[in-house]
Amino acid sequence: MKHRTFFWFILPTLSAMVLFIALPIVSVFIQSLFVQHEQVLVVSESCGPFGCVEETQVDTEATAKLREERPLGQFNGLATYFDRSHLASAEIAEVWRTSTGLPSFIDGIMDLKFYKALVFTLTYTFVVTPLVLIFGLAVAVGVNNLPKAFRGVAIFISLLPFLVATIVGSMILSWMVDGEGIIGATLQNIFNDPSLSIKASTPLMWIMLMVYGVWHTLPFAFITFYAGLQTVPQDTLEAARVDGANKWQTMISVVVPHLMPLVSFVTLMLLMDNFRVFEPLVSFQAEAHAQSLSTFIVSDLREAGNPLYASAGATSMLTILGVVILLTPVLIRTWRDFNAKVH
Amino acid sequence: MLLKKVALAGAVAGLMGSTAFAADCGPSGKSVRILGSDFPAIQAVAGAAEANCAANAGEFTINLRDNTRDMMNQALTPNPAEYTSVIVANSTLTQLMNDDLVRPLDEYVAKYGQHLKPSQLITIGGKVMAVAFMANSQHLYSRTDILEQAGVEGIPATVEEIVAAAEKIRAAGIMEHPIVMNMKVGWNVGEIFNLFFFANGGELFKPGSAEPNVNSPEGIAALGTIKSLLEYSHPDHLSHASNETQGLWEAGKAAMAVMWGSRGGAVLDDEGSSDEVTSNTVLSAAPTAGGGSTPAATLWWDGVTVAKNIPDEDAEATFAALVSGLTSDLMEEHNDKAIWLIDGFQAGPAAAGVSATAAAGAKPYPMIPFINLMHNALGSELVDFYKGDESAEDALADVEAAYRTAAKEAGFLQ
What we know:
The complex is a heterodimer. Chain A is mostly helical. Chain A is 71% helix and 6% strand. Chain A contains 14 helices and four strands. Chain A has helices at residues 3-32, 60-69, 89-98, 102-110, 113-144, 148-163, 166-177, 182-191, 202-229, 234-242, 247-275, 279-283, 293-303, 309-342, and strands at residues 34-35, 41-48, 51-58, 74-75. Chain A starts with a helix and ends with a helix. By secondary structure, chain B is α/β, with parallel strands linked by helices. Chain B has two domains: 2-136 and 299-353, Periplasmic binding protein-like II (D-Maltodextrin-Binding Protein, domain 2); 138-296 and 370-409, Periplasmic binding protein-like II (D-Maltodextrin-Binding Protein, domain 2, 3-Layer(aba) Sandwich). Helices cover 43% and strands 15% of the residues of chain B. Chain B has 18 helices and twelve strands. The radius of gyration of chain B is 22 Å and the shape is globular. β2 of chain A pairs antiparallel with β4 (121-124) of chain B.
């Protein structure tokens, strides 16, 4: 395709991407550089059904004037990125200075919510992603080897976890593992320990979330690989068989290399999705044990009542940065493969 | 459920019959758009306003939903605002006033509010900003049959008595976890801290400033008090909010609970529970702690506000419609749905807990502009302590640090 033709061909997509993806990101970034004006406070008496008290209130007129002059707020530069809720540079320096050894240093770092969430998110991403790839491929090969008559049913059943909305699926499982739910209560009975509770234990909760993550995203990997399996060249398979390769060897040396581009694609998608894990944390009511950067954004925007836009913006930008860092190796690999094929 | 709806429709129709002609709905042909949380008392108030004044208004819409606090500021910010009125509570009025989104109501009160009691008027800096219609607070729920069976005399009045009673119930093998309370991570964890912090004599902020004051002996005492209760509460407590605790209570799986008064009606009614539970459930004042006399509770009110960014005549019609419903007729139809602040309220058994708690001198939930930030910091940073990963001092120091970070961003601290 000529460059000119290509340009006109891509223009509609490109402009939509600039409008709906690039510009909002820029706006979020700008927002993250500003914090609110210093609030003008006045003390006044407030009365109600329970009597009167002296209470502080915002002097709205004075504050409105400040806002009109500079609607974005006070320029704060990158300070929000380095405050205690985010990268916490000052706190880390303090922990470094006062820690007595590696365990106490790690303890100090784990007290900072950003790093605590990062540890969970990365663990989740690096456990769930490979498991989904491996099991997805296994299920795809299994279904592909079934007699034709059963394949339709098998595909449908394998896709079910994907069809159930995340929030619904995790909610159902959450009720089942609750101390009062069927799985939770059965476990308590088996171990004869009424205090045993998945929701009360951080390691069990993490395992629960990861098992759910694998269960829920497996069908995506499965269906992609299953589609790929239909395109494995029969000649090569035949040749491998003639050369005396067993099923396992054929799998490793023929099928997997053929599926490699799909593996890269699925890995990219999984890394992105898993790094932004959110719904399961909400439905499992797992906030006590596991937080992700996404839950912080929501709590900055919603829980605070008067939203903390700078904090939410900074967390969003750091999430994007995190995703970019995670994806870089896969992207470099894909780029190399692409160049290798072209030349 | 169907029966309930039919009954409600009947009640609304009844109201229409009795007050429709008496109500003064203000300027006619105006737009009234109400946003509120979805629970029976607000349904009753909004329903009464609609029954009285929908005919007089050009447009009359009611939107009752969950989590209104997450979107009310955004809804009232544009001019004209999405809604002409939001039904708020202490904390959400603060949230709206921080952004200057509600208007003073004095002139409307003079014109349409003759039947309101002075104590219903929420006055801030000399201006009426909201009209309260119901009160709420946390308090103690007890199962008298289980307490009796375990050999506990009377209803516990202090945290120490509750813990002793729980130990007896456990020792008698009746229940392993007799206590439930709303300890869900986030807002509820913060609120439970407030209760016991106030009961131990704490003040959240240094007087006259936005500087935090929770890392104090009172804060440590409050955490100690809460921990002593958690010893006997359900192992999943960090995921329990009102729906879960009410469910456990109605299923007969708890003997003592710290729950909201607004749940009293639903707990005591004949739905969702057995007669054994409802007939033995007693609502009493929130407990005191550490030898103090302040009950471990915060007093709340729910009330109506009028948006600032709307035409004056819409505002007038909205106010007239809403207060037209706050009458003794409403009481007759919906007496047990809330602890009403309206003239003519007869306190029933479902209101006993809140009345006793207020009478014992519980503190109102503070209406301070930076209270939400403190509440959030408490809700997220205390969890490590409850899980046993951190000491009380460290957790409270974390709360103050997290609060300072947020308060700086919001412009309350420099």
